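Model: Ready when you are.
Researcher: Fold this.
Model:
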Amino acid sequence: MSKLRRIFETTQEISFISPQQEFSLYWKSFLESELGKIYRAIPWKELIKVLRLRENRKDRSALFSPQGKLALMFLKAYTGLSDKKLFEHLNGSIQYQMFCGIFLGPDKLPDFKVVSRIRTELSRKLNVRITQEILAKAWKPYIKHPNIVLEDATCYESYIRYPTNVKLLWESVEWMHGQMKRTCRYLKILTPRTKFLEQKDKYFAYMRKRKKPWKETRKRTRSLLYLLNKLIEQQDKIEDQYRTRIKFPEKYYKKKRVIRKVLSQQKEIFETGKSVPDRIVSISKSYVRPIIRGKETRSVEFGAKVNMIQVDGINFIDYLSFDPFNESTMFIGSIRHCRTLFGKITHISADDIYATNANRKYCTREKITTNFKRKGRAGKHEEHRQIIACELRKERATRMEGSFGTEKQHYSLDKIKARTQLNEILWIFFGVHTANAVRIAKRLAQEDQSHLVA
């Protein structure tokens, strides 16, 4: 009887828990989870201030506060989900909602495109260097050796098909023909005659072949160059003739300028057989350039090249560009960048490409120990120097290059699926710093554990 009474009393106590107590229990369990530890590792207020985010009640994304918008980007990188899948998980997971500061209950978010709208809004406000200074300041207490820096470059590839001249020309032809058909349908006039359908059959017959002979590739290129030039001329003629009746959006003119540039570049490549500077490889992502990497498995990559610096396992973006650059020229600037973030630098480890005479002289003058191979005679403490250089080289080759692989495999940086240049930069930024936040969260957990033991 006493057992039943005790059970009844406990159930009565549970049934009279207030909403505030219930929420505090949920919040406590959330903070103890891995996602809650990441939440604690991020300096939300400082990030909101530096990005100048404000409440906007009129926008469709008004459900998300400024902190919620930032949290959504961290959550996307952490989960590695598409916008649609993230939207579905957000509707069903209380932990995801608590991380983003929203509480839906039985309601549902209206539209999954809110994720891309928030991404576009934040991409316009992001300043990578200033925002990283805020993160470095917040994470500095958890970094044991801020004087030791590792440096290397990597490429975060864009989500585009592997570009060939024939594919690029066909995409341009297809787009121009589609625009001409829509224009003629709107104006209610006959579409000018072209050999588009004939060329379409020939193109797909060519693409189905496993081996594509050089002569046939030349033939397809020549035909597509002629057809693309003809389509542009016909569309220009229609625009001039009916300029008072039709007005095109700015996106149309922008893409048409890209296709004109593609035509001129491909003509030059066809005639000379050599590549051209600022070569366009995708009409939808005209800012992407070929990055020659010189790897065994992949000699060329297409995306953003990043010169990265690492301090105690935490990565920071030093320089990001979609144009190819020589990373050795970034070496001195990266040391100065590290000084603004963490103070004095005593050791640095970088790849052999960074070991130029100018970089060596700078390190000697600033008394910075490097892992570069010695030039000339050995000094008094050569054996000691070699031990340090070997450890630095090993650390860079394992820890830093391993972190690149982790980010690409687990934080949505394998193929960047954003559609604009600014969105790609934002995607890379949140991918890199979500991985950092996970590492800092683990250190926070260790610190909490040590406090409990003490």
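Researcher: Now this one.
Model:
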Amino acid sequence: MKKSKLRAHFRALRESLSAEEVAAASAALCHRLATWPILTGANTILTYLAFRGEIDPAPLFALLPDKHWVVPRVEGTRLMLHPYDPARLVRHRYGMLEPAADLPLVDPQAVDLVLVPGVAFDPQGGRLGFGGGFYDSFLPTTPAIRVGITHDCCLARRLPCKEHDQRMDWVVTPTRILRCTATACPE
């Protein structure tokens, strides 16, 4: 199946979830992550600010207040990293919240772990994003551990993968933590 059809399929699945189901899935996933040694061993963590039914990692800010939380801002075709400051968020033209542009920048090399959003993931570490390529461009710039975050219903058996697609090291759902089995695309 083409990526566009898969993207539409998994977006429809995710958008069919009620607000209560998304909140429950987010809470379960965050409680799972808050005690996971891979995440608790990281100091500087890049996460995302959820929208459109994504799993919301924001409860982690309160569960792990001693971590250095970083969030991305879209600038052109790149992700710029800034410290998380809930008082300094602005709405991007795509609809999601992001940090104000005048906040200090964080070097991608300083990030220990990235919580990566996606429309769908697979156990091999494959990721289906929204199609903009922002994370595929960003991830090679950081040595951070890559952790895909998704709903259980958006965990595919196998997603198509091209050479430029960046693989995850781990995929986490509200009920599972999966160590990914592939480091590169087979194609």
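Researcher: Key takeaway?
Model: The chain has a mean pLDDT of 93.
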